[in-house]
Inverse folding.
């Protein structure tokens, strides 16, 4: 059973760059798919089309049975089911960790403040930051900020998590702590699409690896097959 289906997706930017040239891929419930490929190959664009941060020119995207290209679809509703974590953590600088995590559930979902805070504290524990609830982003390391960003995405109880180079902006010593949180999510059965250069993570955690080049999927394979020495 597929939770993500992308069919013949074409994305051309207004400047004429063809970032995606008829890309088709799908992801099953609970699957972890890692997307690799050279810079500029369309990885980030593909990820952004999956929750319609980038509208597409041609093709179709179906998330959990709902077509994003159907004009009747409420895109914002579907987007709530898809959590996204960016290279730059994008936390709200004037809010502490707890407030960053509770803001979307309380405003978008109308969850009560006490309920949202209870969930946020559980999520902070999950990402190993139970003692940093009142810290502001500027008081946290990059690795800690990224873990708060993951907790913030999880607070909306998404069915899918998209990660766009989540460790690329981190100092090397902080990469491991973020990957550990992602591994835990994968083990718990979260459906994940991860753009990353961390080949160890791909080998260890991915069910499938997609290799992109120049706006096309060149190969899709299990990590064992893809990384096999020729
Ligand atoms: P990757 O994530 O693999 O590095 P991207 O998806 O970011 O690749 O980019 C794919 C191509 O699309 C690149 O040529 C990039 O310069 C171009 N591109 C990305 N975003 C935009 C944009 N907003 N406007 C124009 N071109 C873009
Ligand atoms: P990433 O691969 O993480 O998206 P990029 O440096 O490719 O990083 O893109 C950063 C931002 O700049 C994105 O919002 C992307 O859409 C935009 N962008 C990338 N390439 C271009 C381009 N050639 N023209 C305009 N915007 C671009």
């Amino acid at each position: 059973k597929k939770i993500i289906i992308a069919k013949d997706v074409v994305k051309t930017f207004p400047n004429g760059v063809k970032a995606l040239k008829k890309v088709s891929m799908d992801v099953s419930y609970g699957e972890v798919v890692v997307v690799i490929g050279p810079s500029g190959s369309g990885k980030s664009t593909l990820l952004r089309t999956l929750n319609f941060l980038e509208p597409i020119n041609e093709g179709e995207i179906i998330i959990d049975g709902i077509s994003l290209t159907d004009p009747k679809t409420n895109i914002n509703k579907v987007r709530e089911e898809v959590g996204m974590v960016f290279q730059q953590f994008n936390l709200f600088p004037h809010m502490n960790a707890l407030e960053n995590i509770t803001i979307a559930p309380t405003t978008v979902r109308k969850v009560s403040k006490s309920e949202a805070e209870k969930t946020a504290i559980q999520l902070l524990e999950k990402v190993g930051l139970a003692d940093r609830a009142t810290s502001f982003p500027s008081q946290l390391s990059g690795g800690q900020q990224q873990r708060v960003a993951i907790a913030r995405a999880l607070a909306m109880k998404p069915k899918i998590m998209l990660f766009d180079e989540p460790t690329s902006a981190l100092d090397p010593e902080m990469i491991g702590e973020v990957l550990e949180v992602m591994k835990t999510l994968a083990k718990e059965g979260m459906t994940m699409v991860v753009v990353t250069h961390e080949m160890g993570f791909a080998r260890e955690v991915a069910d499938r690896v997609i290799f992109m080049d120049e706006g096309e999927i060149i190969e899709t394979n299990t990590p064992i097959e893809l990384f096999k020495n020729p």
Residues 172-187 form the longest helix (16 residues).
